[in-house]
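step: validate -> pass
step: tokenize input -> pass
step: predict -> running
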Amino acid sequence: MLVDAMLGRLCKWLRLIGYDAVYANHWPDAQIAARARAEGRLVLTRDRQLSRHKAIHCLLIDSQKLTVQIQQVITALGIPAQQMPRCPQCNTLLVNATHEQAKPHVPQYVWETQSRFTYCPHCDHYYWQGTHWQHVQSTLKQVQENRKQNL
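step: predict -> pass
step: emit ->
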């Protein structure tokens, strides 16, 4: 999918869930449309005018609330078959890193308290499931509960 500039926060969350989400930050509509057509990508947008573009497939995101946005995407597209997290910064698939590989790249406390790390080979960033991951899981649980109530 291709996510327009109005949905940057959603884009990061979609990547963590495992969606291939390209962020079209500061791109004009013509460039978004051209890339979406060339790569066969769905465009996520809050721009009503862009969503009516006849040459591309769009999902108009109605809400400004993140959990509702995530729910709308999951309802429309389903959860990715492979829930391989992607780098929230650059969209590259994350790879597992050993505890020792992570040591020089993470704070000492994190290295001492965490056992599982992932790594982005593109932007050289390490990730772990700290308190932010608990927030991600809690938000996804809320989205799933809301979906069940609305079915």
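step: describe -> The mean pLDDT is 90.
step: cleanup -> pass
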